[in-house]
Structure formats: C-alpha cells, structure tokens
Amino acid sequence: MIQTPAPRSDEEVRAYLRSLGLPGLVDLHVHFMPDAVQEKVWAFFDRQGEDGGLPWPIAYRAGIDERVRRLDALGVTDYTTLNYAHRPGMASWLNEFSTAFAASHPRAIHSATFYPETGGTSAGQQVADALEAGARAFKVHVQVGGFSPLDPALKEAWALLERARTPVVIHCGNGPHRGEFTGIGPVRALADRHPGLVLVIAHAGLPDYRAFADVAAEHPNVYLDTTMVGTTAMEQRAPIPAGYPETMAALDGKVVFGSDFPSIPYPYSQQIEALVHWGLGDEWMRHVLWDTPRRLLGY
Predict the structure, then answer these.
(1) For the whole model, what pTM was predicted?
(2) Alpha carbons 228 and 272: distance in angstroms, whole number
(3) b/e for 104-122, b at 16 or more Cβ within 10 A?
(4) In b/e form, how buried is each residue of 260-282, taking b as 16+ CB within 10 angstroms?
(5) 223 within domain boundaries
(6) CATH value at residue 258
C-alpha cells in the first residue's frame, strides 16, 4: 500500500495533492456567513479559553476575500458555504446570502439551511425555495438550533431532500456540547424513516465516533465527514477510540473531507496530516478528498 508523506504546512498541500494525482480537493465543511453572524461565531470560540478551558484561537480570522484567496491557494477546488439557523426567521435570509455568494464565487458549492418554523415560511418551503435557486448542499445544526431532527415541522423538508438526493451536512453529535436532541438515537431514526436521504454526519459524530460509524455502515446513504477528527486540538477534547482508523478504512467510500475552515485553531494542512497518519493509503485519501464528495454532489 502506497502512503505519500503528509503535508506539514499549508504551503505543502498543493504538492501533496499533485502527488496523489488530484487536481485539488473538495471540502464539504466550510463556512461563509454574513459578517455579523461570523463575528458572533468567532466570539463563541474566543470564550473557550475562559474559566480554565482549552483556548481556541481562530487560525483564519480574516475578511471574506482573504479567506477565499486562502482556499484557492490551498488547492480547494470546491467548498461549501455552510450557514445554519438557530432561531425562527433566519433560514430564508441566510439562504439569500448563500445564493448570492455562490453566484459570485465559482468554486463555492451553493449551500442552504432550513429550520422548523411554527410560523412564517415553513421548513419545507425553505428547502423548496433553496432547491429551486440551485442549492446543492444543506446544513443543519441540531445542538445550536435546539430542535429534533424528528420534529414534525421538518417532515416535508426531509422528504423533499430525499427525493432530490441533495446531501445534508448535519451536526448532530454530542460534541462540543450535548444538546437536548443530540446523539445517535434521533439520527438513526431519521435514517430509518428516510432511507434515500443523503446525510453527512459532521465531525463524524464526535465524541460518539463508533456509534455514528455503525449508522454509516448500516445505511447506504449516511456518510461521515472528517472535520476536526484526529487533529491535535480534538484529540485533547474528544480522542478517537482505539482501532478507529481501521473502522474508517472499512468505510471507504463513505467518508468525505471536511475542515471547518475558517474557525479552526490550527493550520488547514493539519486535518490532512491527521488523516494521512492513520496509514490507510493513497487510494483511501483520494476517495476522501475527491472521489466521494464529488459523487455526492453529482459531479
């Protein structure tokens, strides 16, 4: 099995991709938010070092143009712009921002979100409008949004996405904080109810890595994204269990690359380096970085 040495810095990422014979990489977990929303997200991470907690310095705190330039320099050919609503009334204007962003940035994957509204525009209508506008990926955040994936107000949204076969990056694990509706149970039930729904489990479901890996193994349309998994920062908080690289090897074709750019406390290259150090070989890395995410996006 061939294993090309990992990039040790951002400057080495392009050369690493060329050594794999790839024209670039696809990142399914990138955020581009309206400035006011992005600043609030960064403020949350800035508070992580308080009260004795581990600090979380933002490695790519910059304006939108500079962040786009950094992704281009890294060789990221396609990237999502994941927004997520945490209260009623947000989803539609976040989707308007994401639509405009995709129209002006050709490498951006047109992304969208939805929220279980009790009034106003329903989640089903939010999804229908976004799909009509050209959305190719969606994001929901169960812990931040404070809703159950099984909320009846989401029934139409899930059905539309299942029919469209459009991937949904869903942050549903118990990290970094447990929520009322996080964990494996609701997601397993959602996958059972909608077997054609393409779910991408953000952060591989950390800290419950094995449970979410089992769901991905059992359901043909459930995938895991690698966001933060195995990095030094996350190994201090939610380390992978013994034998986990072998688990990921068995899920070849069900794992996609994600970084959480820009709100990471380490160089972008470290996510790639962490995966390479699992020793699963160049072919596995090609699938994670390029083949599998492009297949999910219908390229």
Answers:
(1) 0.98
(2) 10
(3) ebeebbbbbbbbbbeeebb
(4) bbbbbbbbbbbbbbbbbebebbb
(5) yes
(6) 3.20.20.140
In the predicted structure, residue 49 carries a pLDDT above the cut 90? no
pLDDT over 90 at 119, yes or no: no
152 belongs to a structural domain: yes
Quick one: tokens of 47? 């508070």
Q: Which residues span the domain enclosing 190?
A: 11-33+60-83+121-296
Is position 220 within any domain?
A: yes
pLDDT tens sequence across 205-258: 999 999 999 999 999 999 999 999 999 999 999 999 999 999 999 999 999 999
- What's the rounded Cα separation, in Å, for the pair 81 and 84? 10
Tokens of 293: 């995410």
Answer yes or no: are the C-beta atoms of 60 and 261 closer than 8 Å. yes
The CB-side HSE value for 135 (13 A sphere, CA atoms) comes to 32
